[in-house]
């Protein structure tokens, strides 16, 4: 008798989704799907608004990676007003470095949130631990010093965001062709030396190392489980600079294969010439894939694991040493181990801290033109183009914004392809892999089995609708139905 297992909703992620696993008569996994059951309409909401409002409006899609949306939108505005297309019309060093500084600050605090709050509970207590233990409160009881350090690390990152963007959330700094302000010396010194409200930069570096050491200890103690859990092959994609190393703010899009060989590389403005999107009736989320290779072989992974697979090295010394260890573990091949996403995320926390340290020491973030002299931003005048594409590496992976505006500057169309959409195919592969490992041949529903499916999903830190949920506030009901729809078994939490 075939049966259906439903996990609805998935917890400790952003947004609403459910998992449906179908077992055949012999208790094998016949199908496993991640359903995204919430619809968002921001691309339509923004139409008719002045073009310069887009980065401020569209960042409100998310309460965590809003900086990525703000900066992707800002890069679209740069295209619209002709930055990089008209002779001599370029972003100033101060504008570029202020945007990068904000981007890295978001990477630091967003990764710290996902890693320590959403992932570490299973690392410390195990997938089968009681749900009342494997959460932030459980961490606080088990290791209050660790939680305190994480809170201080996140606060430092959020305060830096406020200094750069004007607000800790949904800032207003980016404008067409640049930014509104640079840092003052007093602001810079506060983040370097700390004060009564925030820690120092030296402490930030120390706390960033905490995450990496935590993964190393966990991996050493649970190597077989970590390495064998949901090994999911896929192509890997990220932005890279001229040296072939990951660039979180700008560059070309590179896709690599299992041997980390370059499969495809192109200007991100040409994204739609290289990718197609499949649709399914059971999900609001599309399935992007490389057109040349087709849907299954052309499915890509983005985010921390993908970036560490794509990049050859990192430009900061401590993260570069950690990356060498990461690459050596798979003998230089691409890493397809789902739980190693957490290793990659820990490396990126350290890398972001180092990048911030270097920029805070750069005089350009304290003084200089914040927009190019003589820039014309009036629609239809100057170097106005009417269309733009912006891509950044958000914490969750490659994020694309594409807008068109008319001669009056009103937005006529907007297309957003977020990182979780890029990962849709590999997320569904992960759900199936975990289902085959943990559910096949079993009738009894256990708490650990339900959580294992969610652990596979949480490794990607997905944002299904960019809506943040409170830990412990959402029910979970798993129901097994027979072919006629009658309930065979049910468990709730």
State the total count of DSSP E strands: 16
Distance N to C terminus: 26 Å
- Assign the CATH architecture of the domain at 91-231 and 337-371: Orthogonal Bundle
Rg over alpha carbons: 23 Å
Overall 3D shape: globular
Oligomer: single chain
Give the CATH H-level superfamily of the domain at 91-231 and 337-371.
Cytochrome-c3 Hydrogenase, chain B
- As a percent range, the share of helical residues equals 25-40%
Q: What would you call the structural class? A: alpha+beta
Beta content = 15-25%
Strand order of the largest sheet: 3-2-1-15-16
Put simply, the count of helices is 16
Question: Can you summarize the main beta sheet?
Answer: 5 strands, antiparallel
3D architecture notes:
This protein has 493 residues and is of the alpha+beta class. Among the domains are: 3-38 and 428-492, no CATH class; 91-231 and 337-371, Orthogonal Bundle (Cytochrome-c3 Hydrogenase, chain B), CATH 1.10.645. The chain has 16 helices and 16 strands. Helix 4 (93-125) runs antiparallel to helix 13, helix 6 (144-165) crosses helix 8 (201-221) and helix 11 packs across helix 13.
């Amino acid at each position: 008798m075939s049966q259906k297992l439903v996990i609805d909703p998935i917890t400790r992620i952003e947004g609403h989704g459910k998992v449906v696993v179908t077992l055949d008569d012999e208790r094998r996994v016949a199908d496993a799907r991640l359903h995204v059951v919430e619809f968002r309409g921001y691309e339509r909401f923004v139409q008719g608004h002045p073009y310069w409002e887009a980065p401020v409006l569209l960042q409100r899609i998310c309460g965590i990676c809003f900086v990525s949306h703000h900066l992707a939108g800002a890069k679209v505005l740069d295209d619209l007003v002709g930055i990089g297309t008209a002779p001599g019309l370029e972003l100033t060093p101060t504008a570029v470095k202020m945007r990068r500084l904000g981007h890295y600050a978001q990477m630091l605090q967003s990764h710290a949130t996902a890693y320590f709050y959403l992932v570490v509970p299973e690392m410390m207590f195990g997938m089968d631990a009681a749900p009342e233990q494997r959460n932030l409160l459980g961490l606080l009881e088990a290791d209050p010093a660790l939680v305190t350090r994480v809170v201080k690390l996140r606060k430092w990152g959020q305060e830096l965001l406020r200094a750069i963007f004007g607000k800790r959330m949904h800032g207003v700094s980016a404008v067409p062709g640049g930014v509104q302000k640079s840092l003052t010396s007093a602001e810079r010194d506060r983040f370097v030396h700390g004060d009564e409200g925030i820690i120092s930069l030296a402490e930030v570096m120390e706390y960033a190392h905490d995450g990496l050491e935590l993964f190393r200890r966990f991996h050493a103690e649970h190597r077989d489980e970590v390495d064998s859990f949901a090994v999911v092959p896929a192509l890997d994609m990220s932005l890279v600079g001229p040296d072939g190393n990951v660039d979180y703010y700008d560059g070309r899009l590179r896709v690599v294969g299992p041997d980390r060989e370059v499969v495809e590389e192109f200007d991100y403005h040409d994204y739609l010439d290289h990718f197609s999107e499949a649709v399914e009736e059971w999900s609001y989320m599309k399935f992007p894939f490389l057109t040349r290779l087709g849907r299954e072989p052309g499915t890509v992974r983005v985010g921390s694991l993908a970036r560490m697979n794509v990049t050859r090295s990192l430009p900061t010394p401590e993260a570069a040493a950690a990356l060498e260890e990461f690459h050596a573990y798979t003998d230089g091949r691409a890493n397809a181990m789902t739980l190693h996403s957490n290793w990659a995320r820990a490396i990126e926390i350290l890398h972001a801290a180092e990048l911030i340290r270097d920029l805070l020491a750069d005089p350009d973030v304290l003084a200089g033109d914040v927009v190019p002299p003589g820039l014309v931003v009036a629609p239809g005048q100057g170097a106005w183009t009417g269309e733009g594409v912006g891509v950044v590496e958000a914490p969750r992976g490659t994020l694309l914004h594409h807008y068109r505006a008319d001669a009056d500057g009103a937005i006529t169309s907007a297309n957003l392809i977020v990182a979780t959409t890029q990962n849709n195919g590999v997320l569904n592969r992960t759900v199936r892999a975990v289902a085959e490992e943990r559910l096949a041949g079993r009738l009894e529903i256990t708490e650990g089995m339900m959580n294992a499916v969610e652990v596979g999903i949480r490794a990607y830190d997905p944002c299904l609708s960019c809506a943040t949920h409170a830990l412990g506030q959402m029910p979970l009901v798993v129901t097994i139905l027979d072919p006629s729809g009658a309930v065979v078994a049910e468990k709730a939490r």
